[in-house]
C-alpha cells in the first residue's frame, strides 16, 4: 500500500515524498509506521525496479495493495493531533483528504532524519537507455555453436587469433575446440595445453570438458593457470629450488622479509612506511612481469616517487630472497622462462609433447607469459589465443593489451576470427556496453550483435547515501526472491573495497545468504575507526582502560604518562577520565586540550551517535590528528582515512543512541569475522565481488555500487587525466564495461547523492552510454 500512519499523521508514498524514504525507513525499523486500517506495524519496501510501498510485516490486512486509504477509515481514524498539526498551516498550504486536512506543496509526513533535497536533484530511479542500439541476430541458429564459433572450433592448425566480445561464447568455443581435437581429430589430450586466467576458470573449463570427454581424457589435458602449469614444470626439473614452503604468497611476507633481512638499513630506505614499501613491491612485480630485470634499471626513467623507491628496493628485495632461498609468484614465471631459455633440451622435450596451445583472456597476458608461451608453441605454432581487448583490466600487474593487438604482426600467418554476437545479455545491456566502450581510443573496433530479442532492464537509482543504496538493493533482492529467484542469480559489484561495508552489514541484518571474499582488514578493525570508537566507548565508561589506551596516540600521551594516569586513578580512587587532565606535568596547551576532551566525552552520552562523532572529530580534534598522520606518511593508501571517518558518520546516522550504535558495530564486526570463515556454495549465495574478480562470470541481475566520480572512474585515473594521461581512464572504462556485461537480464546502477559524507558527481561514464 502507498500510505501509512506516522505519529498520527497520514503519509503517502508519491514522487514528491520519495526523498523522505530514508527517514521513513528508519522509523519503520523502529516500528513507528502503522497501518491506518489494522494498526499493525508496517515495513517500508523501496527497491529499484518497482514503485516503493508500505507492507505489513505479519498478516496482511484488507488495505494491503491499496493506493489510497478508504474514506470510512479516514473518518474513523481522523486524529485531532493530525488535524492540529495541519491546522497550524496557512489555509493555502492545506488540502483535504477525507476527513484529514493535509499540507500541500511540500512532502507530507514527519521531517525528522534526513534533510530535504530539491526534487530535481534526483529521481527515485530511471530506466537507462543505451545511446547506441545494437542489431539483433537475424535468426538464431539451432546448433549449439554459431557459424563463426564453429569456424573457430574447426580452425585447429597454425596461429589463430579469436577476437571476441563480452558474452560471445569464448569458454564455449575453447571447450568445444579441445573436445573436437580429441574426439574428431584423435589428438592425444596430453599434447593439448589450455591456459586460463584464474583457477576458477580452469575448473569451469574442466567441468565443461568432462561433459564431452571421458574422465581420463579430461584429466590428461594440461589445463590450468600460467602459474599452476609453470610451477609444475619447475617442480619437476628443479624440485629443491621451488619448495612450496618457500613461496612468499602475500605482500606482508615480502615486506617482512625485507624488514627482517636487515637490508633496509640503508639510510635512504630506513623509516619507510609499510604502505610505501607495499606500493613499491607492487611496482617491482609489474616490472618483473614486463621482463625488466634489476640489470635493466639503470636506463629506466621513474614516473613517480613510488617507482623511485621501487628502483632502490628491487635489487635489495632480490638479494634478500636469494639469501633465504624464498621465491614469489613472479619468480615462478621468470624461473620457467629462464629454464626453457637456458636448457634447449628441456624446451625441445616440451615442444615435442605440446602440439596445441590455447590461451584464454589473452588480453591480460604479460610479456613474460607471452614469451614463454611462444617458446612452448614453436615450431608448429598451433597457438590459439582468444580474448577481448575491451576487457583488459590488469595493467597494474603488467598485462598489456598490445600483445593481443599486435598478435598478427608477431604471427603474420595468423587467421583472425571475430565473435561479435553477445549471447549472454539482453539487448539494452549489450547496447550500454557498446555505447560505453566505443569511447576508448586504443582498441580493436568491433561490431556487436545481440542474440536476445528481449530488451532487459537497466536502471539508474539515486539513493541518498551509501547506506540507502544498500537498503534499496536489499529490498530489490528480497522482492525478487519472493517472486521465486534464487540468491545465486544476484551479484553486487564494486570498484574498491571501501564501497562494501554498508551492503555487507545490510545483508547480515536482513539474513540474506551472501559470499564475499575480503583479504583486507575489516572496516571496524581499521586504526582510524578504532580511534573514533575509542572516544565513544570512553564516553560511556570513563574507566574503560582499553578505550583510553586506544586513543592515547591521538592525545599525544606517551606510555610513561599512561602508566602515571593509571597509578593516579588508583591513588585518587577516581575514574581514568577524571584524572586525565590533572596529571601535574602536562604542558599547559596539552592540559587545556585534555580538559576540553574530557568535557566533550562527558557530553557525548546524551548526544546522537552522529553528533557525538562530529564533536570528537571537530572539537576533539581527531580529524586534525588524522590529517597530520596522513601528511607524515605520504602514502596513497592512507588517503582513505578521512573517508573512513566519514563512513562511520554515515553509519551513525541510522542510530539513536551511543550504546545501541556501539552494540550494533560490535555485532557487525563479529558477524563479518565469522562469515569470513564460512563459504556458502556460490549457487546459494548472493555474490559480492570486485569487478576484477567478476571477470568471466555471469549473473541474472547485477547491482553496481557507486557510479560516481572518484569511485568509478577511480580518483587515481582522474589524477592521471589531470596530467594529460588517459590510459588509466581507458582502463576504468574497460572495468565498467566488464561490470555491465556480467548482467544477463537486469542491471541496476547506484548513484548515491552523498558518499563519505560529501556530495557526489555522477560518473562521466553514464553520459557516455546513456541516450
Ligand atoms: N551459440 C550459442 N547459443 C546460445 N548461447 C550461447 C552460445 N554461445 C554462448 N552462449 C551462452 O552465452 C553466455 C556467454 O558465454 P561465455 O561465458 O562462454 O562467454 P565469454 O565470451 O567467455 O564471456 P566473457 O568474456 O564476457 O566472460 C553463456 O551463458 C553461454 O552458455
Automatic annotation (TrEMBL):
Domain UvrD-like helicase C-terminal intervals: 427-696
The protein's name: DNA 3'-5' helicase
Catalytic activity: Couples ATP hydrolysis with the unwinding of duplex DNA by translocating in the 3'-5' direction; ATP + H2O = ADP + phosphate + H(+)
Biological process according to GO: recombinational repair
Presence of the UniProt keyword Flavoprotein in the record: no
EC number: 5.6.2.4
Family that this chain belongs to: Belongs to the helicase family. UvrD subfamily.
GO cellular component terms given for this protein: cytosol; DNA helicase complex
Residues that, per the record, bind ATP: 164-171
Source organism: Brevibacillus fulvus
GO MF, any single term: ATP binding
PROSITE patterns: UVRD_HELICASE_ATP_BIND (PS51198), UVRD_HELICASE_CTER (PS51217)
Residue ranges annotated for the UvrD-like helicase ATP-binding domain, each copy included: 143-426
InterPro entries documented for this protein: DExx_box_DNA_helicase_dom_sf (IPR013986), DNA_helicase_UvrD-like_C (IPR014017), DNA_helicase_UvrD/REP (IPR000212), P-loop_NTPase (IPR027417), UvrD-like_ATP-bd (IPR014016)
Residues covered by region (Disordered): 99-122
Record-linked Pfam families: UvrD-helicase, UvrD_C
Keywords, alphabetical: ATP-binding, DNA-binding, Helicase, Hydrolase, Isomerase, Nucleotide-binding
